[in-house]
Specification:
Low-confidence stretches of chain A: 1-13, 591-608
Number of strands of chain B: 10
Helix content of chain A: 55-70%
Order of helices and strands of chain A: HHHHHHHHHHEEEHEEHEHHHHEHEHEEHH
Radius of gyration of chain B: 37 Å
Low-confidence stretches of chain B: 1-5
Largest interface: A-B, 158 and 166 residues
Distance between the termini of chain B: 92 Å
Structural class of chain A: alpha/beta
Largest sheet of chain A: 6 strands, mixed
Number of strands of chain A: 10
Oligomer: heterodimer
């Protein structure tokens, strides 16, 4: 699938000490690893500096002094230290890497756990794509900061410090002069990084546009073909690839220019060393090895300096990621268990909405002063136009949301006295767009009751009317349903989700009837499955089919966030109000033969 | 740096060859000189680097060692000349590595842009049959990740391998010039390093793939959990979900550990190997220097050069392994390129006159490649302006049948005559301009509503016309209720339209196209009852005087058609008008009876309730 473009890199966040502190506190449980790789990277860097010094001594004390003994012992020391350094390298890669993975694991775990607690209100405000980005990429960035970010900056700082010290030891005057190059190099590095980063960002944006264009054109290829849009489309697409070309080419040649620029500037410092060192050597103040070592230390400092700019840019990124993660972790669920909440045991009893008001975040009232009592075993049909507020009643009943004012009672007690789990585990729900999880058909049905036997699963599936089509699968109940159940048709998904609800043996059954037509046979199966589920249970159906509505004990007409009518089918028909209009309209559409869509001349408009 | 622009367009089908290396070379067509330039610049830069060490040798031996200042006359001037020598060499090296980088980027980005455009256009011109069997995600993956892998191949890997080889050759030659013995000793270990690093990076690549696989599984688990939050909550399955996620999360952690352990072993071990090669060299060179076989300057030059000989070798393995992923991507991309495009303008009958819409099907059959036929023995005819309805269950061949009309597929047997001319003689492009299609699943593009309505018309359309089309499709009022009216964006960044609204926008699109023939594919199924009537009204405006094909599975939608075809398993089992078919004992009457029975019950129910008043 195309990646969702989340322009989160856009907002630049200030580095706040608090966030940084909190990010680093994530490493506290693993502080031994942090200390370990930190020491190891420091050792590695010091050893690197010592190697250069040994090289100097090989030249001065071994070769120029013509001492075979000194040469051998220096090289032996060198070799030994390399072994030590290898151990250090092993440990810092291993520890930092593992720590990174571990921090990612911890972050993802705590975010996922927290997400399970958050209420539906949160989910309706935040898109799945954004949440995915928090858990996957943001956690990666944060873990990079406390591991490789720390490694890189430690290494860079250590290299600069050790090089400076050794240069000072060799010749402090020359060292001071050479150090003058550092600010120049840093400025150049920062300038380059800034520009490269901008172009990178542009090219990433262009890239996601290109991916989007591919996605759209491929999934809409039938429309494109039938409308003959090929040439026009290519023209539009070329604009995108040109954009991409410009920014990535720009970024690439800037990067290609960056390194040589740094090299040339340090070559000037190097030339200075040669001139000054040569003069000093002539006076016997500096040795040949010393000049050589000086040059080495200079290159030694050059790398981390140009790297620091990158590390700093990445750090800013990571901190922004950290802030987003903490915002998620800090968000409080709106619906939660009150202290002392108890399990209701059963919720088969009476349900009462007592002067309930409800508004979503946008402040538009959805339910106002809503009062109704539902007797055990009653079947309620909710009807009305889309967006009228039918699903709000259901959401409140399931306690996905709680009333802003008023009380909902189950078993004659305020339902906030019960645990969420106690209520929600006893509600069976079938959604309009059924959601299945990847896995087998059996696993999906068993989701309703995790310790059900295979036999129970099959019985539920028989009751739901799903058994027959499942039997036709090659692997029967072990058939894979695909990601999100996509390998099944909508009707099949609905049947499986009915079976899942039947298996759960809920006290209350809620169904959002599908509007899309499935074939006649499947529809009959679904109807039968629903009947089986409603048997002896209080049920709420957001109904679209007349046959379903007709069967209800009570019909509630919800329009514009208000309950406009309530009663039985014949009561409401007699009232000749909203329901009557809804019903007759639907009836006409199903019934009226003259009202055919394709031949105007054949009919008159039905009188209103 | 000015560069002559190579062809922006290149027919990538010319790059098809069984030899992938040759194919990659051909893909560079038009960029080959630039790429050669990039490689040559690398060589110049490497030479400059090597010369630096030779200059160092001169500096140490001649100037400092022998006190020979013949270069500048005095020590000070000699030193200044040498210092500028170093700066000059560094400038040459820097400039040429910049040229090289820029030329390589120019090549890689240029090829990629060309390839992206080509693939985009190629894919939209591939046959329907290809799109039917190829998942969208798969195609996108190839157009993005694989194209990017190819970009990296040109910009990093191929040039990277070249760089290491050039460094090796030049530095080896330089050391050999200093001392052939030293040169030979210094490269003993090189084959070992290359081979082990190839072996290692192969394994790392595999481990990395496994790690990525698990990352994908974890994402899916997360995505399904978030998308199904209502189900999770409704069944109170939070604990279960947490455990499921934890298991996958832990698996990813342990795969990451495995990957890291491998990395953590490779680098220090290869450090040790390379270092001991270097130290051996230094010991021998040092001894030679002490014995006077070579000078101190030579020793120092050697010590510098040998690093450039050995250390890059570790990366050679990595690059070679990555190159193989470039080759794999090349294969995956050419698989798309290999597919045949639909010739859009080819056809024996080149007329620009609008069609009338008379159709005669004679024993038409269709099968996908070597599969059993999907359509068999289809024969019927219709006059211009008539309505033909297709009724039948899912999979009975209705959609396939109408897909023959715009030549989305070509029938494999029999004959279809449109206005007396064989359908396959019409160019596809012309035919499609004459046919308007309202599909079952309305598809809109993520651009403004106006652009969506104008999508099928390749001309500037005045606002009035767009609005008229929208009004006829009963969507104008909805559109002007949005803050940005016709400029409202559709999709994720704009408004979310309901199924019915989307459907009506596509109808407006079809109205604006004003085609001679219409195909309506079950267009009212995904809509609730209120919008259904609005759509029906919209469609009423479309049908007169156009030959219309309607696909439906409700009797009500087909009753007034001039011809009803009842289809089953790819054949026409009944044909006639509504009245004729009701006379017959067949599937049509069975469907009719089933659907009317429900209606009658409802009618009774209504009259009962009302009569109780």
């Amino acid at each position: 699938m195309a990646e969702i473009e989340l322009e989160e890199d856009e907002y630049t966040s200030q580095i706040t000490g608090k966030t940084v502190g909190r990010i680093f506190s994530l490493t506290r449980p693993h502080w031994r690893w942090v200390a370990g790789f930190w020491v190891m990277i420091a050792f590695t860097s010091i050893l690197d500096a010592i190697f250069t010094y040994i090289n100097k001594n090989i030249i001065d004390q071994g070769i120029i002094a013509q001492s075979q003994h000194a040469l051998r012992s220096l090289l032996t020391l060198y070799g030994g230290l390399i072994l030590v350094q290898s151990v250090c390298v092993f440990f810092f890669i291993f520890l930092a890497g593992i720590l990174g993975e571990r921090i990612q694991f911890d972050l993802r775990k705590s975010m996922f756990n927290h997400l399970q607690q958050l209420s539906l209100a949160f989910y309706s405000q935040t898109s799945v794509g954004r949440l995915m980005a928090r858990v996957t990429s943001d956690s990666g960035r944060v873990s990079d900061l406390v591991t490789w970010g720390l490694v890189d900056s430690t290494w860079a700082i250590m290299n600069i410090i050790t090089s400076t010290i050794f240069m000072m030891i060799i010749n402090w005057k020359l060292a001071l002069i050479v150090l003058g190059a550092i600010p120049i190099l840093l400025t150049i590095a920062v300038q380059f990084r800034k520009r490269i980063l901008v172009e990178f960002r542009n090219s990433r944006k262009a890239n996601s546009k290109i991916t989007g264009a591919y996605n759209e054109n491929i999934s809409g290829v039938r429309v494109v073909k039938s409308l003959g849009r090929e040439a026009e489309n290519l023209k539009e697409f070329t604009i995108l690839t040109d954009e991409m070309y410009r920014s990535s080419y720009h970024a690439a040649w800037l990067s290609a220019l960056f390194l040589p620029t740094v090299q040339i500037i340090s070559a000037i410092a190097l030339g200075f060393i040669v001139w000054y060192g040569g003069l000093q050597a002539h006076l016997g103040i500096m040795t040949i090895g010393g000049i050589q070592a000086f040059v080495s230390y200079l290159t030694f400092m050059m790398w981390p300096i140009q790297d620091l700019a990158r590390v700093y840019a990445e750090m800013q990124h990571s901190i922004a990621s950290g802030e987003r993660i903490f915002t998620l972790l800090d968000s409080v669920p709106e619906v939660f268990d009150r202290p002392g909440a108890a399990d209701p045991g059963t919720i088969k009893g009476e349900i009462e909405f007592d002067h309930v008001d409800f508004t979503y975040e946008d402040g538009k009232p959805v339910l106002t002063d809503f009062t109704m009592k539902i007797k055990p075993g009653e079947m309620i049909a909710l009807v009305g136009p889309t967006g009228g507020g039918k699903s709000t009643i259901v959401n409140l009943l399931c306690r996905f949301y709680e009333p802003k004012r008023g009380v909902i009672r189950i078993n004659r007690r305020d339902y906030t006295e019960f645990t969420l789990h106690g209520i929600q585990s006893r509600v069976g729900i079938v959604l309009q767009t059924p959601h299945l999880f990847s896995g087998t058909v059996r696993e999906n049905i068993r989701y309703g009751c995790l310790n059900a036997t295979d036999e129970e699963v099959e019985n539920a599936s028989k009751l739901a009317g799903a058994h027959d089509f499942i039997q036709n699968f090659e692997k029967k109940y072990d058939q894979d349903v695909g990601e999100g159940g996509n390998l099944l048709s909508v009707g099949q998904k609905q049947l499986v989700s009915i079976a899942r609800a039947i298996l759960a043996q809920p006290d209350i059954f809620i169904m959002d009837e599908a509007t899309s037509s499935v074939d006649t046979l499947t529809e009959a199966l679904i109807q039968r499955g629903m009947e089986n589920l409603m048997l002896g249970r209080t049920s709420f159906i957001i109904a679209h089919r007349l046959s379903t509505i007709k069967r209800a004990n009570r019909i509630i007409v919800v329009e514009d966030g208000r309950i406009t009518e309530m009663g039985t089918h014949s009561e409401l028909l007699r009232a000749r109000g909203h329901y009557y209009r809804l019903y007759t309209q639907q009836f006409r559409e199903e019934r009226e033969q003259e009202f055919d869509p394709y031949l105007t001349q054949a009919t008159n408009m039905p009188e209103d | 740096m000015k560069l002559a622009a190579p062809a922006h367009e290149y027919d990538f089908s010319q790059a098809l060859t069984p030899n992938r290396i040759r194919g990659l070379w051909r893909m560079m067509s038009g960029f080959q000189w630039q790429y050669a330039g990039a490689t040559a610049s690398l060589a110049v830069a490497a030479c400059a680097k090597t010369t630096t060490f030779i200059l160092l040798r001169y500096f140490v031996d001649i100037v400092l060692g022998q006190g020979n200042y013949s270069l500048g006359g005095t020590l000070n001037r000699t030193l200044i000349i040498i210092a500028f020598g170093f700066i000059g060499l560094a400038s040459i090296e820097g400039s040429f590595s910049y040229f090289s980088g820029r030329l390589a980027a120019y090549t890689a980005e240029g090829i990629t842009r060309r390839l992206r455009n080509y693939l985009y256009d190629h894919i939209q011109r591939l046959e329907f049959a290809y799109h039917d069997k190829t998942p969208t995600g798969e195609l996108i993956e190839r157009c993005t990740s694989d194209v990017d892998a190819l970009r990296r191949f040109y910009s990093e890997q191929a040039i990277g391998v070249g760089r290491i080889v050039i460094l090796f050759v030049i530095n080896f030659t330089a050391i050999a010039l200093l001392s052939i013995r030293l040169a030979l000793i210094s490269i003993i270990i090189v084959p070992v390093i290359i081979l082990t690093s190839i072996w290692f990076f192969r394994r790392v690549t595999k481990a990395y793939e496994k790690y990525q696989e698990q990352e994908a599984i974890l994402s899916t688990t997360l995505q399904e959990n978030l998308a199904g939050v209502r189900v999770v909550k409704a069944f109170a399955r939070q604990e279960y979900e947490i455990n499921k996620f934890n298991t996958e999360n832990w698996e990813k952690y342990s795969r990451g550990r495995k990957l890291l352990t491998m990395q953590a072993f490779f680098w220090p071990v290869s450090d040790i190997v390379c270092s001991f090669q270097t130290l051996t060299g230094l010991l021998i060179a040092g001894t030679m220097a002490i014995n006077g076989t070579i000078t101190v300057g030579t020793y120092m030059a050697y010590a510098g050069l040998v690093g450039w000989l050995i250390w890059p070798m570790r990366n050679l393995g990595r690059l070679i392994v990555q190159t193989s992923t470039g080759l794999v991507s090349f294969g995956r991309v050419t698989e798309i390129i290999k597919q045949k495009q639909e010739p859009l303008t080819e056809g024996n009958y080149q007329s620009q006159q609008p069609i009338r819409g008379e159709m005669i099907f004679d024993k038409v059959g269709f099968a996908y490649e070597n599969n059993p036929p999907v359509l068999q023995d289809i024969s019927f005819s219709c006059q211009p302006g008539q309505v033909v309805a297709l009724l039948g269950s899912t999979g009975s061949g209705k959609t396939t049948l109408v897909n023959l009309l715009p030549r989305f597929y070509d029938y494999t047997t029999g004959s279809i005559k449109l206005d007396g001319v064989e359908l396959t003689d019409y160019p596809r492009e012309f035919l499609r301009s004459q046919v308007g299609i309202v599909q079952q699943e309305p598809f809109l593009f993520s651009r403004s509503i106006r652009e969506n309505i104008m999508y099928g018309v390749n001309r500037d359309v005045p606002q009035v016309e767009v609005e008229n089309a929208a009004s006829s499709a009963a969507i104008h009022d909805v559109i002007i209720s949005f803050p940005n009216e016709y400029d409202t964006l559709v999709g994720e960044k704009g408004v979310t339209l309901s199924g019915g609204q989307k459907q009506r926008v596509t109808i407006a699109r079809t109205i604006l196209k004003d085609s001679r023939m219409l195909i309506l594919d079950d267009s009212t199924s995904s809509v609730d009852t209120e919008t259904e009537s609005a759509i029906r009204e919209a469609l009423m405006g479309l049908t007169p005087k156009r030959t219309t094909f309607i696909i439906a599975h409700r009797i009500q939608s087909v009753m007034n058609a001039d011809l009803i075809l009842v289809m089953d398993k790819g054949r026409i089992i009944q044909k006639g008008t509504h009245e004729e078919l009701l006379e017959q004992d067949g599937m049509y009457r069975r469907i009719y009876d089933l659907q009317t029975r429900i209606d009658e019950e409802l009618a009774m129910e209504l009259s009962e309730s009302v009569s109780r008043e």
